[in-house]
Design a protein that fits this description.
Elements: E1 2-7, E2 29-31, H1 37-53, E3 65-72, H2 79-90, E4 101-109, E5 116-124, E6 142-150, E7 159-161, E8 167-169, H3 174-186, E9 196-204, H4 211-222, E10 233-242, E11 249-254
Parallel strand pairs: 3-4, 9-10
Antiparallel strand pairs: 1-11, 2-7, 3-5, 4-10, 5-6, 7-8, 9-11
C-alpha cells in the first residue's frame, strides 16, 4: 500500500470546528450532523430484539471494542457515512460509549438478497490488526454479532442552516482548511481512479474523541485531493493507537 504519515495529534472534526456563518452571523444556527434516523432505528431495533429473544446479558459492553462490518449492497453509498450511522446506532445499545471503539474494519460487498444487509461483529479483547483481515481471525473474540436487513443510508455530513432555513454543507471552517492544507503538503500525486481500500491509523497519548470522527476529519478532506469521491472507498480500516512512547501521528494508506 502507498501511504503518507502526518506528524501531530489527530484532530477531531465538526463538534470542535469553528462556526461557518451564512448571511448574518447572529441568524446562523449550526446543525453539526443530519443523521439518517430510520437507518439507525433499524439497527437499534434488530439488536434490542435479538437481545430480548436470546436473553443476551453482556450488552452493552463496557470496555474496549472493535467493529467488523460487512455491507451487502449494490449502492455506492459513501462507506464513511454508513459507518457513522452504524456507530451511533450501536452507542448505548451494544457498547456503553463509542469512545471505547479502538478499531474498525468495514467492507462493501455485492448484495446476495433483494435487500441491503449489514453484518455487524463486535469484537472484544483484541483490536483488528489490518485491512486484509477476515472476521474468521477473530471468531474467538466476537462478543456479539447481528445481521440487519435495512435500506442503507449514508447521509451524515456537517451542515449549517442560514436565517432562511436553508441547509448548506459546512466545509470551509478553520479546522477543515487546516487539515486540508496539511494533507496538501504531504500528498502531490494524481487522483485515484476506481475503488479504493483505505487505512487510517492514528497515534496519540490519550483517547480524545470518537474514532470515527477523528478519521473522518482526514478522509472527508481527501476528497478531491487523493480521490474524486468518498464513494470510491470499498474497504475502510481505522485504528487508534494509544502510546506514551511514540509521538502523535496520523498515517493514511491506500491501494
Amino acid at each position: 500500500m502507498t501511504s503518507i504519515k502526518i506528524s501531530g495529534k489527530p484532530i477531531n472534526r465538526a463538534k470542535e470546528s469553528a462556526l461557518l456563518t451564512v448571511g448574518n452571523p447572529n441568524d446562523s444556527i449550526v446543525y453539526p450532523y443530519m443523521p439518517s434516523v430510520n437507518f439507525q432505528d433499524d439497527i437499534e431495533y434488530e439488536i434490542q430484539t435479538a437481545v430480548r429473544k436470546h436473553n443476551v446479558n453482556n450488552l452493552p459492553i463496557n470496555g474496549s471494542v472493535s467493529l467488523y462490518v460487512e455491507l451487502y449492497t449494490d449502492k455506492l453509498s459513501p462507506i464513511t457515512g454508513v459507518l457513522k450511522n452504524i456507530q451511533d446506532a450501536l452507542n448505548g445499545v451494544a457498547y456503553t460509549d463509542d469512545r471505547n471503539v479502538s478499531s474498525v474494519l468495514i467492507r462493501r460487498l455485492p448484495k446476495t438478497t433483494p435487500h441491503d444487509v449489514i453484518k455487524i461483529n463486535i469484537i472484544v479483547t483484541r483490536p483488528i490488526e489490518g485491512i486484509t483481515d477476515t472476521v474468521g481471525k477473530y471468531k474467538d473474540y466476537v462478543a456479539y454479532k447481528v445481521d440487519v436487513e435495512t435500506v442503507i443510508e449514508s447521509d451524515y455530513l456537517p451542515y449549517v442552516m442560514d436565517g432562511n432555513g436553508i441547509l448548506l454543507p459546512q466545509k470551509d471552517d478553520i479546522t477543515q482548511l487546516f487539515i486540508r492544507n496539511t494533507l496538501l503538503r504531504n500528498y502531490h500525486g494524481d487522483l485515484l481512479e476506481g475503488q479504493i481500500d483505505l487505512s487510517v491509523i492514528m497515534g496519540s497519548d490519550s483517547i480524545d474523541g470518537d474514532i470515527d470522527n477523528l478519521a473522518l476529519t482526514y478522509i472527508n478532506n481527501l476528497e478531491g485531493l487523493l480521490f474524486e469521491s468518498v464513494s470510491q472507498i470499498r474497504c475502510l480500516y481505522i485504528k487508534r493507537v494509544v502510546s506514551l512512547r511514540e509521538d502523535p501521528f496520523v498515517e493514511i494508506a491506500w491501494q
